[in-house]
């Protein structure tokens, strides 16, 4: 057990360092290739820092995490995607991805999953937010919002279903001593006896309803909050009205 904890600690810090290096390289590459000559690094970093801090608080502080009665205890509802969504709508998809990345990097030293859980969360959220932000960037109206939400939700459900059933659950069994697929199945059956296996039944009765509820709440809150504050977010330029 001690060797595992040592390996987990080393892995967390290595991934954290590599992530920071990747972020710096990505920022430099973006600044070099970005066509907007008036790109403001200070403004961009400030926006990412502010929204990334809010997202991190919503991600790691227990008071902001909700346990749903029909899913096992290892799944909790949190709303860290809302700040990233708002940043993506206000400042573009690249800002949203940077916010998600910063949130994940900050969480890495506290990881109990050898960083795999944080990586999967980053992939889930990116699949959800990136399509929506890209579509809204091209169509800045309610139709663009609706299509972005729809495409993002569908893509996120596909990615989360595949990653949870075929990556995360087997990974937990391998790294946690004494944990078996039968124990995980029993945990799921304790809240829903209809679950008979950890692939299709897990996807149908756990992953899909859990993520549909989460995505629906995130979308509603994001829409209401962004519609209320989008003029403030664009105080430094001509106001943009959501049609």
Please summarize what this structure is.
The chain has 8 helices and no strands. By secondary structure, the chain is mainly alpha-helical. Mean pLDDT is 83; it is low at 1-5 and 238-243.
Keyword list:
243 residues, mainly alpha, Arp2/3 complex 21 kDa subunit ARPC3, 8 helices, disordered N terminus, disordered C terminus
> How much of the residues is beta strand, in percent?
under 5%
| Rounded average pLDDT | 83
Question: What is the CATH class?
Answer: Mainly Alpha
What multimeric state do the chains show?
single chain
CATH hierarchy: architecture: Orthogonal Bundle
Based on helices, strands and strand pairing, what is the structural class?
A: mainly alpha
Largest sheet: none
What's the Cα radius of gyration?
19 Å
Count of runs of 4 or more consecutive helical residues? 8
What percent of the residues sit in helical stretches (DSSP H or I)?
A: over 70%
What is the β-strand count? 0
**Which term fits the overall shape?**
globular
Number of domains: 1
Distance between the termini: 57 Å
Q: N-to-C SSE series? A: HHHHHHHH
What does this protein structure show overall?
This protein has 243 residues and is mainly alpha-helical. The protein has a single domain, classed as Arp2/3 complex 21 kDa subunit ARPC3. It has eight helices and no strands. Helix 2 crosses helix 4 (93-107). The longest helix has 34 residues, at 142-175.
